[in-house]
Amino acid sequence: MPILHVTVRERGGPETTAEEIVAALNVGITAAIQWWHREIFPGHFRLGAAAKYIYKKRGKQHMIRKARRYHHQLPLVWTGAMRNEMTRYLRVDTLKRRAEGKGKMHGPGYKNLYWRELTETTPGEAARMAKIVDRVSTQKLNGNQKATSRKIA
């Protein structure tokens, strides 16, 4: 997953506490991670992804074996087991006291060999994720604002 650094200048009113801001940002981070997993991550296994995300070049013999055995040239796919398992499951964990979250996907043990390629993002995708964090956290904070009432004599 890409690391997004978000700076909050001012959100909500003066009655908004730091805990509410962190909670709202974590909701936004969760939404961005889920969007990335649903919309962007499957694209890592499609034709053209090797050029888009700049994957390590595979050897000629590797590509020939893959074409003969499995009849495809999809990047990061040999049998499809890793792709199928990793696109089905996502768990998002956030911290309570800091605006930080991580997405965890299940997959075979060899997925760790390709973690950089699996989590690569383009600058445009990172910008879209930052917009999601901003939009969702702002909506959460606007919904959290407490109504104040004064008695006028």
Characterise this structure.
This protein has 153 residues and is mainly α. The protein has one domain (18-144). The protein is built from six helices and two strands. It has helices spanning 18-40, 49-53, 60-70, 81-88, 115-119, 123-144, and strands at 91-94, 101-104. A two-stranded antiparallel sheet has the order 1-2. Strand 1 (91-94) and strand 2 form a beta hairpin. Helix 1 (18-40) packs across helix 6. The protein is elongated, with a radius of gyration of 21 Å.
Main attributes of the structure:
153 residues, mainly alpha, 6 helices, two-stranded antiparallel ribbon, disordered C terminus, 5% strand
Secondary-structure blueprint:
Blueprint: H1 18-40, H2 49-53, H3 60-70, H4 81-88, E1 91-94, E2 101-104, H5 115-119, H6 123-144
Antiparallel strand pairs: 1-2
Please outline what is shown here.
With 153 residues, the chain is mainly alpha-helical.
Q: Mind summarizing the main beta sheet?
A: 2 strands, antiparallel
For the secondary structure, the number of strands is: 2
Radius of gyration: 21 Å
SS summary, helix count: 6
Q: Which bin fits the share of residues in helices? A: 40-55%
DSSP strand content: 5-15%
Number of domains: 1
Low-confidence stretches: 147-151
Q: What would the average pLDDT be, to the nearest integer?
A: 85
Q: H/E order of the elements? A: HHHHEEHH
Shape call = elongated
Structural class: mainly alpha
Kindly report the spatial arrangement of strands forming the biggest sheet. Answer: 1-2
User: Roughly how many Å apart are the termini?
Assistant: 57 Å
